[in-house]
Amino acid sequence: MGKALSCSLVFLCFFMPLAFADWNILTQKTRSGLRISLKNYCESWRMNVELHNIRDFQVVPAECTDYIGKYVRSTQYKVDSERATEECLVYLSTSCNLKKDGKDAWVFDIDDTLLSTIPYYKNNGYGGNKLNETDFEDWLGKGKGTALEYSLNLFNELKSRGVQIILISSRREYLRSATIDNLVNSGYHGWAGLILRSPADELVSVAKYKADARKQLINNGYRIWGILGDQYSSFDSPPSCTRGFKLPNPMYYVA
């Protein structure tokens, strides 16, 4: 009996890993019966992140980290980003009655809006692991973020039209000096305000912190015509601007 039980356990231990190893997204189907490839699965996941159908995720699905990494380094990512910034200018040219009195304003986020954190994620996985905030902030403090070309072009175009640029970031206040240096070294000059999170702001969500910052700007007389950010939390809480524009970012979610 003991020998038979031992053989059975060996049999199960041998075949159970094979059973789990046999699970593969390539063999999966949707609920309607459609056979899907790994690319189908990951592209659908990415698209639904951008549509804000998928929220509050902490990590990218393990099957999709390579796909997400390829996307954020791809021409498609650049095309998507360029289109978003072009739409900002179309809107500004057709729908904004600028007063040109120093109170017309546009709000930008910083990380993955003006400065790319892709170099950090390249060395730490494209969203497949929960973010180590201490490690990430150490990286931010070194000023290694790189300019996002189309955001820089938009930044400069808005300035040339007399629009005041306000930066509202979830970066902490102690990173102010490093943030300014990184922005200037990346080609960003002449913003009218840089708002970072104080210790008191850390007690509330990013969405509320940014909404409170916008409310203060409005109370100070600014007309916020638009916001560009990579997260919905940059513009989806009242008081809202006239228009919010989202850049692609499937690597992480900030509420």
From TrEMBL:
| Key words, A-Z | Glycoprotein, Signal, Storage protein
Q: Which CDD domains match?
A: HAD_VSP (cd07535)
List the InterPro entries. Acid_phosphat_B-like (IPR005519), Acid_phosphatase_pln (IPR010028), APS1/VSP (IPR014403), HAD-like_sf (IPR036412), HAD_sf (IPR023214)
TM helices/strands, residue ranges: none
Q: Per its database record, what is this protein's job?
A: May function as somatic storage protein during early seedling development.
Q: Which NCBIfam families match?
A: plant-AP
The protein's name in its UniProt record: Acid phosphatase
Question: Which species is listed as the source?
Answer: Crotalaria pallida (Smooth rattlebox)
